[in-house]
Amino acid sequence: MFIYNLKINGGIALKTIIILLSLFMLIVFGISIYRIFFTEKRFLVKDDIVKNEITEIQAENYTNILQSVHDNIDSYEGLKIKFSGYVYRLIDFEEEEFVLARDMIINEQQTQSVVVGFLSKYKDAKKLNDGEWVEIIGIIEKGKYHNSEIPIIKITSLQIVTQPENPFVPQPSNTYIPTIGIL
């Protein structure tokens, strides 16, 4: 029969554990820094989007979605959307272009608003009157306007509708966190 007598020095054991934990944390931190700064788009979340389905945009989140799509066009390119707004044109638009617009309230008294919306392309756009309300189904594409890359809605279906009861949309909220590709 063998009896082992093992004596552990508490101070040395504690120092050893602290050193090992520090090394482990340093290695994890180093790997994280490497992945964040030295890998190119490898760790971006890519949500699977069913691009054949039509996503209907609600007035309550229109400006949040508008901002999100403008910030990350590539993630939304090819997505089919449905929304209503009015026809708004600027003098430098081509014949088939207009903004699918809504008025965004910019103060709490709801006395001031600005026009916001997606630049849209429709083959028969010249037949539409400015201010006319339409509901569209279209596909988000990447386009150019004044040498800036912007999202453009290529309209596949359009119908004239009546103005909704509340034609205004709210400002984008600071708490909105887009999930890439999901509206």
Could you characterize the architecture of this molecule?
With 183 residues, the protein is of the alpha/beta class. It has a domain of 116 residues: Nucleic acid-binding proteins (OB fold (Dihydrolipoamide Acetyltransferase, E2P)), CATH 2.40.50. The protein is 23% helix and 32% strand. The chain contains three helices and seven strands; from the N terminus they run H-E-H-H-E-E-E-E-E-E. Strand 3 and strand 4 form a beta hairpin. The longest helix has 29 residues. The chain is elongated.
Summarize the structure.
The protein has helices spanning 10-38, 62-71, 73-76; strands spanning 54-56, 80-88, 97-105, 113-121, 133-145, 148-160, 168-169.
Determine the N-to-C terminus distance. 73 Å
By CATH reckoning, the class of the domain at 54-169 would read: Mainly Beta
**What is the makeup of the main sheet?**
5 strands, mixed, barrel
Which class best fits the helix and strand makeup?
alpha/beta
- Listing every helix as H and every strand as E from the N terminus to the C terminus, the arrangement reads HEHHEEEEEE
CATH architecture identity of the domain at 54-169: Beta Barrel
Strand count: 7
Based on CA atoms alone, the radius of gyration comes out at 27 Å
Low-confidence stretches: none
* Fraction in beta strands: 25-35%
Q: What's the shape?
A: elongated
Strand order of the largest sheet: 2-3-4-6-5
The CATH topology assignment of the domain at 54-169 is: OB fold (Dihydrolipoamide Acetyltransferase, E2P)
Helix content: 10-25%
CATH homology superfamily name of the domain at 54-169: Nucleic acid-binding proteins
Mean pLDDT: 83
Structure annotation, total helices: 3
